[in-house]
Structure formats: C-alpha cells, structure tokens
Amino acid sequence: MHPMSEPLFPQYLLWIWFTLTALSVAYVALDMFTRTPEMKVMKWGWVLVTLYTGPVGLLIYWFSCREPAPGTHEQFVAPLWKQTVGSTIHCLAGDATGIIAAAIITSWLRLPMGIDIWVEYAAGFLFGLLIFQALFMKDMLGGSYSKAIQASFYPEWVSMNAVMAGMIPTMVILMTRDMTAMEPASVRFWGIMSLATLVGALTAYPINWWLVKKQLKHGMGTERALGKGGPPPERATDPAITAYTAASAAHMRVAADASAPGGQHATGHHNMGGQHISASRKAAVALLSLLLLAVGYYLAAQYGDLSMRPGMPMDAMPGMDMPGHQM
C-alpha cells in the first residue's frame, strides 16, 4: 500500500459523524448527570467515551447503562455482559484520553510513528492507572492511593495491552493511507482516533469480561450502592441494593487482596465469596494480552509505515521514488 492513497472516508461524512457525536455527547451528559445513578467516575467515563466513539457510544450507553425506569439501575446493569461494558468503558475513558493527548503532542514533536505509538502506550497506561483507576477509585479501596494503584495495576495493564492491540494497527494503517491524518488540525486525525477507539474497545472487551468474572475488576456501578456513605437510609434494606452492594464490594476487595504482598488482605476485609486466581492463571492472561499487542504491532508494521512522521517530505517516504508512481 502506498501512502497518500484515497482516504477511507470522504470528509463530508466525517463532519456528519462529528455532528452526530456532538449530539450524542450532549444527550449522554444530560442523561448521566440528571437521571442515571452511575458513579461519578463512570459518568465522566461515559461522556469521554461517547466523545471518542460518537453515536456508537450512545447506543452502547442506551442498552447497557441508561436506567430504564427510576429505581431499576441495579437490576438493569446486573448481567455480566453489562458489567463488562462498564469495566471496558472505565478502562477506555482513561486510556484513550492519554493516548489521544500523547498523539497530539507527538505530532507537534514530529516523532516517527514507530516511536509515537509507544509514547501513546505509556501515556494511556499512566493516565488510566494513576487518574481514572487509582485516584477515582481509592475511596472504594479504603482511601489509600498507594493501595489503589496496587489493586489497579494488573487489570489496567492487561486491559491497556488489549486496547492498544486494536488501536495501533488502526491508527498506523489508516494514517499511512493519508498523512494529513497525522495532523491534529485535520478532521481525518479525529476520525481515525474515533475509529481506533472503537476497535480498541472491541479488543479490550474479552479481557475485561474475564477480569470482571474473576472479580479482579469492578463492573458497571451505581451511586446508590457504591456512592460515598452507602445507599440512602430509605433504601438500605432494599434487596436489590444490598445484594448489589455486597457483590460490588467483594469485587473491589478481591482486587485489592490479590495485589497485596504475600496474598494478605490489603483492605482488612474477608473475601466475601470472591475467587482466588492463581499466579499462573494471571500470568497466562498477561501473556495473552502481550501476544495480542504483538499481533497489533505486527499488523501495523506489515501494512503500515512506522517510519512516517508528520511533515515528512513526500519524496522521502517509502514508495515515492518507485518508477511510474504518480501523485
């Protein structure tokens, strides 16, 4: 594939997409902050992910998180697939934000794509771990930021590997087709980032399913059960609230306990029915996530150009000096 072939999407379609994205973000933000009792971190997570994924994010929100009727959120988000959606959204909100911010900076620095993708990886992982995971979730882990980092490190790392397994080849291959898409001032840059985020969500979902199922990561939340201070007094004995609170607390405690040195209970609580995951099983999943990342990198190197950089002269790009090649 030669660089600068026809762009994948006409520019007018991208403007339509981003108009729909703006409307989707406005709806999700309004609905989240006025009627759906999600945890605060997830409210912002949904807004950010919808900003990156447009109408697709709105559809996912509608069918997996939006409270269909007052007082039903706990039951509505209880299925494992919806819990996994929540886990993936939480991961993606932090990771994609760091990745896109890094992509803007590396574009200004004119770094080659082969370096750019690993700067994005580091930025996405650190922002996701230190901000969206540990900082926003520390109150659920006893208020200790350091323990929150320990508890979040493994699930955030394997999730990040899976996210980038999808995002790296999408970004590199499509930007190889059209170098103007490497410039943040171009609408094509944002179109590719949007598509890459969607692909990253797909590749991250299976690992997040395993993490939630094995209680190594929380799923979709609700502030009535997990908000600071617990559920309102008038609903404290509601079976849906108490069951959801116990299950969610168990997930977070197991995650913290699994990260504590020597397997000690870092939170000071008992397991509450959580599963013990062997070190070998966790290592196998980590290896699988690295394999996915390696496949993504291979696809990017095979079908894209890792040497390209923003502002590179066209005659310096591979394939531009081939006989018979015309712009």
UniProtKB/TrEMBL annotation:
InterPro entries documented for this protein: DUF4396
Organism of origin: Hymenobacter metallilatus
Signal peptide: none
Keyword list, A-Z: Membrane, Transmembrane, Transmembrane helix
Pfam families linked to this entry: DUF4396 (PF14342)
Superkingdom as given in the UniProt entry: Bacteria
Stretches that traverse the bilayer: 12-33, 45-64, 84-105, 117-137, 157-175, 187-207, 283-300
Occurrences of domain DUF4396 (ranges): 81-217
Protein name stated in the entry: DUF4396 domain-containing protein
